[in-house]
Write the structure tokens for this entry.
Amino acid sequence: MNTFLDWLLSSVHSVDWLLRDVVTSLAIACETTLGLGLIVPGDTMAVVAGTGVGNVIDFIGLYSFVLFGSFVGESVGFWIGRKLGGKIRTSWLGRKIGAKNWELADIFVESRGGIAVALSRFLPVLHSLVPVASGMTHMRYRDFIRWVMGACFIWAGLYLSVGWALHNSYDVWLGRLKYGSEIFVTIIAIFIVVISLVKKRLQKAAESMIVTEQVRDAIADIETSEGLE
């Protein structure tokens, strides 16, 4: 397995830095755009690209491209919502996504505003829908992109750093051990499990926020109806 990992990591390193950065940026832009965000694995792309980083300057360059791709994808989603939100939701793609997911995104954004935008960067499904849902509200693009930038700075830095650290650890010492490849794969598996658990916790937190808001709306409706009586 050591031989295979040597070949795999060397292959990533051998890719021209500009091609690697552009492809990664494009993938991230697609991942944060409606529809494509449910297919393109942005997290995986960021980690894999990170393994190809050679030095600090290289890291800064890739980091900049990933941030740019994130901003472009999120912005496209926002303006799709602002200009075509209603049509998109009633289209074949909108129906395929599901009314429940749209409703969750709507309530999340309406109840939490910018925090919802930031958290969605780390959540499955919602990371693709929240930008569109945000565009359909009265949220200003300036406020939207500020929250996006804060979340993406953290997200990109985390995943790219992990990829870079994994490759460096393999080059420095794991690759020289008899079972270095097995340890390397184990570390990756642990990272994936930890990230999955964190995402599930965030997802539950988001769902809790949504449920709380739904309960508040229901109570408000009851109080209003009682007041009318």
Notes: The first helix runs from residue 2 to 14.
